[in-house]
Design brief:
about 75% helix; Malate permease; single chain; membrane; 16 helices
Length: about 350
């Protein structure tokens, strides 16, 4: 398939186009409603809490209510391993982009570059485009992210040792609990007692593990599905509302924020793409196209809220962090759709 055919296929794929326009339009709607004061200054924070404590845990758990096969398990394990390795790599490599800055600013920018808003910004987009399988890979990928965000990032930004409170945050976070529970249930299902139920997609009888509630207890699975479906629109409205609170003119004056945004939304995903390509071609750690796409979208996200809160809370370049968070969010809104198109073109070329 030549480049023109790949482009045509990409730009006539209504699933991709609709997902991109949905993201942009709902973020813009949130921005407009905040500017008009229809949304209060607390709206973004309130929606963020709902998404992180209810919708995303439901989304993560539901994604594992699926059949297990050797190929999906293989790619899931590859995503888990890569998700741990890439953060180790970025912890060291990200510092190279900021060698011209003083030590404190270099440290802060390095942490902000390494950790993006994969959960709040990335997962809803992945779910909208790649469905349950993409969400599953995103949840698995986030295991490594959570480990280093609540350990390395906290220690570096605070200058303190790891605390019990932070360890508790790491493991008792609703999204983390839902991910680990779903992952364990997904892996052990071949060894569990089974029940026969009606497949909701094919409407044919199927035998599954007794806890596969998508088949055995649709009355329980359906409410979780409704909650999960809220994650994307609520997250996008919250992002737009948050953008509506900050002065673009003030943030845009900071050249470092623009440089950081380019590294975060262009260079970091490109590094991931190059590594994934090499690992897949050499068959050292091959991943599927959906897994690759999930990882790239997750890594093109703006500053992680937790990383930003570390910087602000410990008074480590608080103003720069606020400006960088704002500019990188705008950058991600622009670049994520571009990365989605690039991913589609790569898929059309049959590279992954």
């Amino acid at each position: 398939m030549d480049i023109s055919q790949a482009l045509f296929k990409t730009f006539t794929d209504m699933n991709i186009i609709s997902s991109i326009t949905s993201t942009l339009f709902i973020i813009l709607l949130g921005f407009f409603l905040r500017k008009k004061n229809i949304f209060s200054d607390q709206f973004g924070k309130m929606m963020t809490k709902i998404v992180l404590s209810v919708s995303l845990p439901a989304l993560a758990f539901n994604s594992f209510m699926a059949p297990i096969d050797d190929q999906t398990l293989k790619h899931g394990l590859a995503v888990l391993i890569f998700g741990i390795l890439i953060y180790i790599i970025l912890i060291f490599v990200s510092k190279l982009f900021y060698l011209g800055y003083d030590h404190d600013r270099q440290t802060v920018l390095s942490v902000l570059t390494t950790f993006g808003s994969t959960t709040f910004f990335g997962m809803p987009i992945v779910a909208a485009i790649y469905g349950p399988k993409g969400t599953m890979y995103a949840s698995i990928f986030n295991i490594g992210y959570r480990i280093f965000l609540y350990s390395y990032a906290y220690i570096v930004m605070s200058g303190l040792k790891m605390t019990k409170k932070n360890i508790r945050q790491m493991f008792l976070n609703p999204v983390v609990l839902a991910t680990f529970l779903g992952l364990i249930l997904w892996i052990i299902q071949p060894y569990m007692p089974t029940l026969t139920g009606l497949n909701p997609e094919t409407h044919k009888a199927v035998t599954v593990a007794f806890y596969r509630i998508d088949v055995t207890a649709p009355w329980l699975f359906k409410p979780l599905t409704y909650l999960a479906s809220l994650s994307s629109p609520l997250a996008w409205l919250a992002i737009g509302s948050t953008l509506g609170e900050i002065s673009f003119k003030s943030a845009a004056k900071n050249k470092t924020s623009w440089y950081y945004t380019a590294i975060k939304t262009i260079v970091v995903p490109a590094i991931n793409l190059a590594l994934l390509f090499v690992l897949t071609v050499t068959k050292i750690l091959p991943v599927s196209q959906v897994a690759m796409a999930t990882i790239l979208i997750m890594m093109a996200t703006p500053t992680a809220a937790v990383a930003a809160s570390y910087a602000i809370g410990f008074d480590r370049e608080a103003v720069l962090t606020s400006n960088a968070s704002f500019i990188s969010t705008i950058g991600a809104v622009i670049m994520v759709p571009i990365w989605i198109v690039i991913i589609s073109l790569i898929g059309s070329a049959g590279i992954f």
